[in-house]
Amino acid sequence: MSSLAEHSVVGLCIPIAERSATIHSDQYRLPIMTVTAPNTVTTIIGLEVHVQLKTETKLFCGCKTQFGAPPNTQVCPVCLGLPGALPVMNDRAIELAVKAGLAINCDIPPMSKWDRKQYFYPDLPKGYQISQFDLPICGEGYLDIPDDENDGDTVRIGITRAHLEEDAGKSMHDEASGTGDTRIDLNRCGTPLLEIVSEPDMRSSAQAQAYLTQLKALMIHMGISDCEMQEGSLRVDANVNLHINVGEKKIATPIVEVKNMNSFRAVEAAIEHEVVRQYDVWQETGKTIKEEPKTTRGWDDTKEITFQQREKEESADYRYFPDPDLLPVRILREQVEAIRSTLGETPDQTRDRLPGQYGIKPYDADVIVKSGSQMVVYFERVAELSGDGKRASSWVQQDVMRTMKDRQIDVSDFPVDADKLGDLLKRIAAGDIDNSRAKDVFNHLVDNDQSVDEAIQSLGIESVDSSEIDALVQELLDANPKIVEDVLSGNEKAVGALIGQAKKKNPNANPQVIRETALRIIKSK
Amino acid sequence: MFDSASEILSLQSSGEATAVEIAEKTLAAIEVSQGKHNSFTHVARESALAAAAAVDAKRGSGEKLGPLAGVPVAVKDVLCTRDMPTTCSSNMLRNFEPPYDATVVQKLRDADAVIVGKTNMDEFAMGASTETSAFGVTRNPWDTDRTPGGSSGGAAACVAAGSVPLSLGTDTGGSIRQPAAFCGVTGLKPTYGRVSRFGLVAFASSLDQIGPIAWSAADCALMLETIAGFEPRDSTSLETPVASYTEALASTDLRGLKIGVLRNSIDTDGLDDSIRAAVNASTDAFKELGAEIVEVDLPHSNYWVPTYYVIAPSEASSNLSRYDGAHYGHRASDIDRNTKDGPLVEMYCRSRSEGFGAEVKRRIMVGTYALSEGYADEYYNKALKVRRLIKGDYDAAFTQCDLLLGPVTPTSAFKLGDKIDDPIQMYLCDLFTVGANLAGVPAISVPAGFDAGGLPIGLQLQAPVLQESRLLFAANAFQSITDHHKHRPSC
Ligand SMILES: [Zn+2]
């Protein structure tokens, strides 16, 4: 990250007193103004975002990357760092990283390389992490985010770089056993991460939030990452400090890198907390960036405070050097252009297009777009086949997404493909099947690899011909003269009572048809 | 015993001996030699006999046999074997058994070779005398008070002793060629990337290469043909198809071949007179075979050893980080939980202190320093620049000639204990060999005579990248008119 001293401050300046009023924290007293002229404070925020790339296999071996497998079952000699094992680069990770880079307008240099970042930790079995030091896969870029000050405008956030690296494993400290033992799960070890480093261009926690939201939507939409913070497939570190104007002088407070934030809300809260805390510390100690360039703090989600992680900041020397086991990565212009041609619409463009094309609400379009481009493709196919965008939207959002969530599956693995669902919804529109029977068919299809016809047959659903319905309704009306009277005296809703009875006699009878038939017979009398 | 791997193959095909008989004979010879030379860290008697029996059964049922069927082979203990320990001659891995075979080991098995055991070496291949082994020194069969060289000391000694016809060594800075020279056998370091490194426990990844040690260039060709080739599991492996090395030996006519003599090496002050004489005599032999002799120079050769001793330890310091006691290998017991830095750091420090020997620690420290912030530009990055110049020297030299000729070592085998306390003297053993590793070119050490004390002398030939055929062709021609390689120690 470029030095803050060199960075020109063009952000939004709010007097500290005004800003403090928006901070919901009782951990710190509000800053007391000790100088007569109000100090203007600018918050400087840069974010480092790790996204886990959605590859089938790890970055340097053939192990699966699936989340939630039993500990140490997705490992091999390579990711275990056994003697003699060698890494082999996963081309798909390169492709996704380039795609991500293009989505955030990065330069893709013709050559990048792999370096070893060396440190000892039990969840890092080789004693080094394969990362990228001076030649990252993606160079400078930017992301435009909505401007919360001026509706409709955007703010441009610079991207410094984005580089690929392998993830470490997980250490679980076993407090319960009383021995202080640590258990290591290396399933995650070697999964591909793209670290996207922004310029210190954000000026408020709201902007940080907007940047993250925008980035996440983009990554999901492009199929680059699932971005599940809870599963660790999206991680955020925030670099925060303040530029304080005291009269003519501009003072920069030491940069604090905040780690361990597990939600966007936490990122927002941590930044807000840091603004107040850093201002307080500066008032107390007068310490600036010159005396203490950078420290690392953790985020405590329950107390809503940041805390110092180490007593004394040790300057880590990672002794980066080019990994001799891997060749430099050469990316041809044609490859970049081929990947660029697969980018398609941005999420914003899709979100704007769907309501007009399918007659759905902007809110619904947003939900579908946020679920990723594969979901958009699924929805559009269902909408086209069924000829009813609204019905498609409601089924996709309710039945499809709920089942996906319950069963933890991707839309690509969803057992009821878009063609089947489109077929089913078309039959509802044609009145061949009623909504509740259609749900039965849907649920049946989730568990059985059948066509819609086969499912209908398996469930014993038959279409009932109109003479049968006429006879059935006539029989019921004869048995319920009260209903006939009520309808004739203007209460059409009374026929509702017939539907349940009709269904009992013939479960395949369509409620809408029964209603219409009953009204027709009564009125024709 | 036997004269060559090809003899062992023909004894079986003619029905004069079975693979089991050959294995029995070999194991008996190893047993005799082991007490005197300590060439092996592990003798795989049972699995060797089982493999030999399987070869006999295959032959009996008329099945097609591999090119090394029934040939006993020794494997340096830095190559992973799934049914034998892989110790790197270190206490760190004393009890380590890998769950997989190195690619070269798998290829030997596929070729129906009979793996008889793992050979002793300098710890993690760091050394030039096999004295840094945690399993005791290996002794030179020509004089048991002397070193067989290193780091592939066991690999060369077991061939020299006559017990095994073929042996796999590894060469990072001369570790195949120097022991081959000291032991009077033939050893070849292939082009970097010609033989897959998958399963080779890394010392310095950009320099390490696996190669054969044998009684002759012809046997080296046979073994190299089996182990060479592209492999996707090693990203630095080369995709070029493997030439038929044995076919390259059909002729011994060197007319049209231009050999560049490295005059500066031969005139080096530190070179023993007997070696100088042997190298000069070999030049005459090549003339006799029809080769044209020219003189060439590799101008940056003075920088070879310093460059090597920055790059190799730097990579080693990183490669050896994984031995931290956390996942496998030696872990210190009775960790004090109340030390200043906490139990984890204590466990790391003590496990590594106990598991590694002095030379390994020295190189880890040198490498760590050379890669440190503020020093990397002065050492590691500068060494990379010099390495490019050294490569350039080779490229230029090979525009003037087809092969380079010079000595392998400045002296013949030195006495055990002579240099072990003087690392600089030990490092100078690599004076003539590290150039090939830094440039990635293939090189071979061929027996070229004996000094006054009756110790073998080696001759080095180096070829352009992927020209192993040319190297073996010339070495084989040389061996067709000389008999240095046929001498055996009277051990
Ligand atoms: Zn793996």
Automatic annotation (TrEMBL), chain A:
Every Asn/Gln amidotransferase domain range: 377-522
Q: Does the keyword Transferase apply?
A: yes
- A Pfam family cross-referenced in the UniProt record is GatB_Yqey
Q: Which InterPro entries match?
A: Asn/Gln-tRNA_amidoTrfase_suB/E, Asn/Gln-tRNA_Trfase_suB/E_cat, Asn/Gln_amidotransferase, Asn/Gln_tRNA_amidoTrase-B-like, GatB, GatB_Yqey_C_2, Gln-tRNA_amidoTrfase_suB_CS, Gln_synth/guanido_kin_cat_dom
Q: Which residues cross the membrane?
A: none
GO molecular function ontology, one term from the record: glutaminyl-tRNA synthase (glutamine-hydrolyzing) activity
* Role of this protein: Allows the formation of correctly charged Asn-tRNA(Asn) or Gln-tRNA(Gln) through the transamidation of misacylated Asp-tRNA(Asn) or Glu-tRNA(Gln) in organisms which lack either or both of asparaginyl-tRNA or glutaminyl-tRNA synthetases. The reaction takes place in the presence of glutamine and ATP through an activated phospho-Asp-tRNA(Asn) or phospho-Glu-tRNA(Gln).
Q: Which PANTHER family match?
A: GLUTAMYL-TRNA GLN AMIDOTRANSFERASE SUBUNIT B MITOCHONDRIAL AND PROKARYOTIC PET112-RELATED, GLUTAMYL-TRNA(GLN) AMIDOTRANSFERASE SUBUNIT B, MITOCHONDRIAL
Similarity field: Belongs to the GatB/GatE family. GatB subfamily.
**Protein name per UniProt:** Aspartyl/glutamyl-tRNA(Asn/Gln) amidotransferase subunit B
Its lineage reads: Bacteria, Pseudomonadati, Planctomycetota, Planctomycetia, Pirellulales
UniProtKB/TrEMBL annotation, chain B:
The cross-references to PROSITE patterns, in alphabetical order and at most eight, read: AMIDASES (PS00571)
GO terms, molecular function: ATP binding; glutaminyl-tRNA synthase (glutamine-hydrolyzing) activity; transferase activity
- Amidase domain segment(s): 21-472
BP GO annotations = translation
Tell me the keywords, alphabetical order: ATP-binding, Ligase, Nucleotide-binding, Protein biosynthesis, Transferase
User: Looking at the UniProt record for this protein, which Gene Ontology cellular component terms does it annotate, in alphabetical order?
Assistant: glutamyl-tRNA(Gln) amidotransferase complex
Annotated active site residues, numbered on this chain, are: 76 (charge relay system), 151 (charge relay system), 175 (acyl-ester intermediate)
Top-level EC class: ligase
Q: What does this protein do?
A: Allows the formation of correctly charged Gln-tRNA(Gln) through the transamidation of misacylated Glu-tRNA(Gln) in organisms which lack glutaminyl-tRNA synthetase. The reaction takes place in the presence of glutamine and ATP through an activated gamma-phospho-Glu-tRNA(Gln).
Q: How does it assemble?
A: Heterotrimer of A, B and C subunits.
* Name of this protein: Glutamyl-tRNA(Gln) amidotransferase subunit A
The protein's gene is named: gatA
